[in-house]
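ingest -> validate -> predict -> emit
validate: passed (alphabet ok, no gaps, 210 aa)
predict: started
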Amino acid sequence: MNTQSKAALRRALRAARRSIKPSQARQAALAATDALTSTRRWRQARTVALFLSGDGEIHTDELIARAQAAGKRVYLPVIRPPRGRAGRRAALAGGTLVFRRFTPTTPLRRGLLGIDEPVATPAAGRRAQAICSLAHLDLMVMPLVGFDHAGNRLGMGAGFYDRTLGQRRGFRGPYRVGLAHECQRVEALPHDPWDWQLDACVTDQHIYTW
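emit:
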């Protein structure tokens, strides 16, 4: 597909979500959190991959807090460059994600792309440092720039989630849920064969399933 059209959509949709006023963003985050936590998939999930929001994304602080209060194991993405390589450029070219346990006491540090990531330290304890494989994640809540009526997802363009999900062998999970403002929905997105579709997307106004 035309990568330039994806780039143009990213610019427009990122601008749209960044233009949301702080008070409206807080209301949208609460509405989306209420909607997601009311679903059967959320209630049944014991291991949940979430993310720390930025750049106008739906705020996830309350969602993370509710997951932890409900006794779910919360994991956050950590970017890993390809084996044998290091640095930002290598990560962007072929990096994947691992999901590290996050608790209220887990320390964070700035990752390769400027996003905070949970740190594995001896002081954090073995349980807090645990990495959860894709096979053992019940639910993956994914950031996105845009989504369409068919469940196609437009990310930031680095391909971390698509490459990571492409590593699955012999199992279907985890259940993939996008989290977005309603203004990030478009009629149709350009997509490539390696792009993974969503199973559902939750916005401040609707729950979409495919």
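Residues 101 and 128 are 5 Å apart (CA to CA).
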